[in-house]
Specification:
The complex is a heterodimer of chains A (143) and B (86). Chain A is mainly alpha-helical and 143 residues long. Chain A has helices at residues 5-12, 16-24, 44-57, 62-73, 79-113, 125-137; strands at residues 2-4, 32-33, 39-42. Chain A is 64% helix and 6% strand. In chain A, a hairpin with a 5-residue loop joins strand 2 (32-33) and strand 3. A four-stranded mixed sheet of chain B has the order 2-1-3-4, sandwiched between helices. Chain A binds chain B through residues 78-81, 83-84, 87-88, 90-92, 94-95, 98, and chain B through 8-12, 14, 39-40, 43-44, 46-47, 50-54.
Chain lengths: 143, 86
């Protein structure tokens, strides 16, 4: 059974634009085209696109998903290879979480320092503090 | 000198080179402290050192190789740090 791009999109809950984008990125390919040039997909494409969606939900980029799909299609790939890719993604996510926590703490300091919420923007303590941080890169830091 | 080898179980390319790198290090560094670090067990430590890909190598708490170095580069790095001539 062949699916048009519209039917495939409805089946998996993504837009037709997304499916065309996946195709440009080499993640999916239609099995045939009609005489009018419409893409046709095998029913297996539903499972394939769901795989892509779930991988995206786990934080994998399209390039990484292509790597996972290659491992999935490869007879020689073992579970250990996939596990390593998943653990590397986890390391990257944890590093980003750590960076974001640092940013959040920096914002906490700025917010706590701002004890005059009614001040005009020209005397806003947060903007002043950000100005000071910029100045500190050049060397001198205001007290 | 402490060398930490970050790996995960089941990673083929981790296992392939680990022994050769360890032997090269042991031959060059007399008081070598080699640690095999399973990142699943010590994830926070790996993240703190900036490990993003596997395998990875850290020397004295500093991430030195994100990926496997050739044995020649590995020896060069160890020699540079110990001022021992290769």
């Amino acid at each position: 059974m062949s699916l048009t791009i519209g039917k495939l999109a409805v089946s998996v809950g993504v837009s037709t634009d997304a499916l065309r984008y996946y195709e440009r990125e080499g993640l999916i390919a239609p099995t045939a085209k009609t005489r009018s040039g419409y893409r046709l997909y095998a029913s297996e494409a539903v499972r394939h696109v769901r795989f892509i969606k779930r991988a995206q939900q786990c934080g994998f980029s399209l390039a990484e998903i292509a790597q996972l799909l290659a491992l999935r299609a490869s007879d020689g790939a073992c579970c250990g290879d996939v596990r390593r890719v998943a653990i590397e993604k986890k390391l990257q996510l944890e590093a980003r979480i750590r960076d974001m926590a640092t940013m959040s703490r920096a914002l906490d300091v700025l917010i706590a320092d701002c004890n005059a919420p009614d001040a005009t923007s020209s005397r806003c303590p947060i903007l002043d503090a950000l100005d000071r941080q910029d100045t500190s890169k050049g060397g001198a830091r205001k007290p | 000198m402490m060398v930490e080898f970050f790996f995960t179980n089941g990673c083929g390319r981790c296992a392939d080179e680990r022994l050769a790198l360890r032997r090269a290090a042991e031959a060059l560094i007399p008081n070598l402290d080699w640690r095999d670090v399973d990142v699943v067990v010590e994830l926070d430590h790996a993240v703190a050192l900036g490990v993003l890909t596997l395998p990875a190598l850290a020397i004295d708490g500093e991430l030195v190789f994100s990926g496997l170095p050739s044995e020649r580069r590995w020896r060069q790095e160890l020699c540079r740090r110990t001022a021992v001539r290769p």
